[in-house]
Amino acid sequence: MNTNHAMKRWLSPSRLMGIAVALFLIWFIVAFLMYPNLSLLLKTFIKDGSFTFEPFRQLWHSGKAMKSLLNSFILAFSLMITVNIAGVFLVMVTEYFDIRGAKILKLGYFTTLVCHGIILIAGYQYVYGPSGVVTQLLMRIFSDLDPNWFTGYGAVLFVMTFAITSNHVIFLSTALRRIDYQTIEVARNMGASEFRIITQIVLPVLKPSIIAITILNFHTGITALSSPMIQGGDHFQSINSIILILAGSEYSRGVAAALSIILGLATFLILTFLMRKDMDENFTAVSKVSSRIQKKKIANKPTNFLMHAAAYLLFVIYLLPLAIIFVFSFTDSYSIANGIISLDRLTLSNYIYVFSQPNGYKPYLVSLFYCLGAAVLVVVLCLIVARILHKSNNKLVTRSLEYATLIPWLLPSSMIALGLIYTYNTPKWLVGNYVLVGSIWIMLLAYIVVSIPFSIRLIKASFFGIDGSLEEAAKSMGAKTFYTFRRVILPMILPTALAVIALNFNGLLVNYDVTAFLYHPLLQPLSIVITSSVSENAVSSEVDTKAVSLVYSVVIMIISSISLYLIYGRNSNR
Amino acid sequence: MIEFQNVEIKYNDFVAVEAMNFTVKEGEFFTLLGPSGCGKTTTLRSLVGFIIPSKGKIMVGGKDMTHLPVEQRKIGIVFQSYALFPTMSVYENIAFGLKVQKLPKDEIHRIITEMANKVDLNEQQLNKNVSELSGGQQQRVAIARALVLKPNILVLDEPLSNLDAKLRGQMRAELKRLQNDFGITTIYVTHDQEEALTLSDRIAVYNKGKIEQIGTPHEIYNKSGSRFVCEFIGDINRLNEPVLRQINQQTGRQFDLSKPGYIRLERISLSLPPAIHKPVCLKARVVENEFNGIYTKYTYDVDGVLIRNVEKNDGSMSYINGQEISLFLNADDIMQF
Q: What is the dihedral of CA A553, A556, A560, A562, to 10 degrees?
């Protein structure tokens, strides 16, 4: 009787469904998160059945590869300083000091939220590149100026500094707004100078956020790909851009793998440190009734003028690439190549081509398929994983799952891409003996894999934010687990899930790091088309390639703005 | 109706509830009262089925419910947070359990309309989102949602703790009215002794996973069964040796001088109570007075022991600090354990 009862429970539909889900998750984690990376390590270090350091020896003797290694570390360390100077400054001028037109300035600084990734990097090239507007202007003043003046370390550092201040705009501004103004007032009341207040009251509270952002920026710097490729020139290539070149040849693949392993180790160390910092330091306001921060007028007139001047100069730097992309999207290659902005040359033909010709809208369809597909699938996957993390009492299961979902965060995109390429370029039983390399699916899978850590973090937080008694209430009214999930839990998770879909979609639209390794030659997504068009040699007999790529950029920015408005804008009005 | 037979509940090695034995009669308003972490909510959750006891049995109507799944127990629950589904309207919240039972739409509508009338929710409120309701209205929705499934038992887990003092008072009265109207057996969990005294037919006072005393509010308050109950329920004076010695000298009753005696504040009077044959009189000096409008709470020094009492505000009499007075009490009102 008892055996029958136990058997029935084991074979109940919900139990069978649970087993199927568990098997699927195990397969996905092994096939796409663990095996490709382990396989890459084995292929790099095991030759003819024995351990070898040959790829590292090759790397040591490759001047270009070693230079790229050095370049990436120099860039990452430099960005830790420059991004913080720019980021802290723009947060202070918009949130702390009373600067005229702060709201407009803020709009300019916020542009990195909608114009980012490859679009922004390309945008800077249209402003400062050999045919850029600023370069053309400078050449009129300094006739002997080298048109390629904006290349190398300085150019990459400049572009990346202003391209990655989004973290400051979002997180540091929020941290600053959370400072209890009464602590500043009491310091003033005790006679503290403005400098002392900033250094001893404001910045210590912001320190955990600044450290976290600094480490993230270090990570961005060390894994940089698009800016070194576009602005780096011959002398300033990064690890990732060299990996991309080396990965193409069978002979140098080992060196590419060795480089990506070094990158992986660096990322692992950085993120371990970041997570420790995240747990160690967290200041919360201790006052029972905190008050909103009030902007401080700068009393010293010369300082006030300098602050205003610097704030508006930054505004121009931020807005220029965006404005140039927008204006040039209505012109032709000639205007773009010569940095000419003339009313006579304005045209709508680029837009008409993009929206009416199959070749024009094909990159959109390709990107839509990959980015939306991956964005939705990763959220579905993360909903399942987060639900298990939320409900399971088995620590072994939850910890294993949690660590598995963090793997893509600990590894650079290039290593993930190389792992997939080197593993699935031959038939493997794990994927039904299907050769994924060269198929349309490999990039979709890679997009899903790289989006997992960010998505799981937000969706998991949303699950854990739900009052546990809601589920118990539903259960006490007779609702089964799946019915409760569908009717009670899912509607509460849905806003977060949709936001994650939108954010992933936005991020993937301008993703270049994974795309450059894995895109199908016949199905080029927008980021590849845009990058190709930046090249000085980009020509096409059929269309104005450069101008059309700018239309793509404008439309991506519009899509990003709409999704950001849908996620944050509407809520902030409530 | 409900019977806990030697129930023990463990969280790993920690025994949250130990050898629990009590019965609840049909239609009774039974309260589990005790400080935080004493095991009262754990007991409640084991009755509902969220926790399975490690030992013992839970019987309802003569049937063993110990291992029965939650949904088969026919117990309605109102949570501390009310646990109203925020993505649903009031109507949808109340209809949730009926939809799970797959009742026809017309039937669901009829039942909800009837229930809404009983708990004073109008049609406009039924169409609102639960977040648009006041705390009191949310409580009524939570009760309606639980009662609409016609449960045999209603359990309430500190449902008033999120409300402000004034609303708590109003809701207490409303809760009692609803329980009377529906006549349903109700188990109520609270740490608020005033709530327990005003609402309950009987109270079980918990301490460290065990029941200290079960009784009517009157018994619990006036005939407390242990030192813990005495100190946990209401305000009380602790009488030490010098005071007890004086009392022993004046009455036939002999209190053990090595243990403290306890007497409620209102059982000490400044005037001679007419009904007492042999009142005890203690010489005291006023050291503090706290005017509260309806009454004044005095603190006196009696032979170095501080004793308090409350005097109704009749608009005339008021004692000042340092004033010498006489206190009267009945030795039978003193409890000693």
A: 120
> Are residues B83 and A470, on separate chains, in Cβ contact within 8 Å?
yes
* Domains observed in chain A: 65-328 (1.10.3720.10), 350-574 (1.10.3720.10)
Q: Between the CA of residue B125 and those of B80, B134, B150, B170, B315, what are the distances in Å?
A: 21, 11, 22, 19, 46
A393 touches chain B (CB under 8 A): no
Specify the pLDDT at position A35.
92
If we measure between CA atoms, which residue out of A57, A477, A84, A111 comes closest to residue B88?
A477
Residues of chain A with pLDDT under 50: 1, 279, 284-288, 541, 572-574
CB of A5 less than 8 A from some CB of B: no
- Residue-wise pLDDT for B289-322, tens only, equals 888 888 889 999 998 889 999 988 887 767 888 8
Q: Which residues in chain A are contacts of B131 at CB distance < 8 A? A: none
Cα A555 to Cα A351: distance, rounded to the nearest angstrom: 10
**Minimal CA–CA distance to B96: which of B147, B47, B136?**
B147
- A466 at B interface, C-beta within 8 A: no
pLDDT, one tens digit per residue, over B248-295 is: 888 878 888 888 999 999 899 887 766 667 788 889 999 998 888 888
Among candidates A384, A558, A346, which has minimal Cα distance to A463?
Answer: A384
Query: Under an 8 A CB cutoff, do B100 and A483 touch?
Result: yes
Q: Which of B100, B129, B132 to probe the A interface (max A CBs under 10 A)? A: B100
CB contact (8 A) between residue A475 and residue B97: no
Q: Is the CB of residue B212 less than 8 Å from the CB of residue B205?
A: yes
Distances B10 to A54, B13, B15, B20 between C-alpha atoms, Å: 59, 6, 4, 12
> In chain B, which residues have their Cβ closer than 8 Å to the Cβ of A473?
77, 79, 83, 85, 145
Strands in B280-291's sheet, in edge-to-edge order, are: B268-269, B324-329, B280-291, B295-302, B305-312
Cα nearest neighbour of B148 on chain A: A477
B89: distance to nearest CA of chain A, Å?
Answer: 12
A475 and B70 within 8 Å at the Cβ level: the answer is yes
Q: Which of A213, A247, A263 is nearest to A71 (CA)?
A: A263
Q: Are B202 and B30 in contact (CB under 8 A)?
A: yes
Q: SS3 of A215, please?
A: helix
Q: Give me the residue from B70, B85, B87 closest to A476, CB to CB.
A: B70
Side chain identity, residue A465: G
Distance from CA of A504 to the nearest CA of B (A): 25
Res A258: pLDDT: 85
Q: Is residue B4 within 8 Å of B58, Cβ to Cβ?
A: yes
User: What is the spatial distance between Cα A113 and Cα A173, in angstroms, rounded to a whole number?
Assistant: 14
Assigned CATH topology for domain B2-232:
Rossmann fold (3.40.50)
A491 and chain B in contact, CB less than 8 A? yes
Asked casually if ipTM beats, i.e. exceeds, 0.85, the reply is no
Tokens representing residue A523 in the block: 């199905």
In angstroms, what separates the C-alpha of B291 from chain A's closest C-alpha? 29
**Domain spans in chain B, listed from the N-terminal domain onward:** 2-232, 236-336
Helix and strand totals (H; E) in chain B: 10, 18
Q: Both tokens of residue A409?
A: 């965060």
Query: Tokens 């406009």 label which residue?
Result: B124
User: Among partner residues A472, A478, A491, which is closest to B101 by beta-carbon distance?
Assistant: A478
Task: Kindly report the number of other CB atoms within 10 A of residue A315's CB atom.
Answer: 20
Nearest neighbour of B86 by CB, restricted to A469, A476, A492: A492
- Helical H runs in B148-260? 165-182, 193-199, 217-222, 227-232, 241-250
The matching CATH number, chosen from 2.70.70.10, 3.40.830.10, 3.50.50.60, 2.40.50.100, for B236-336 is: 2.40.50.100
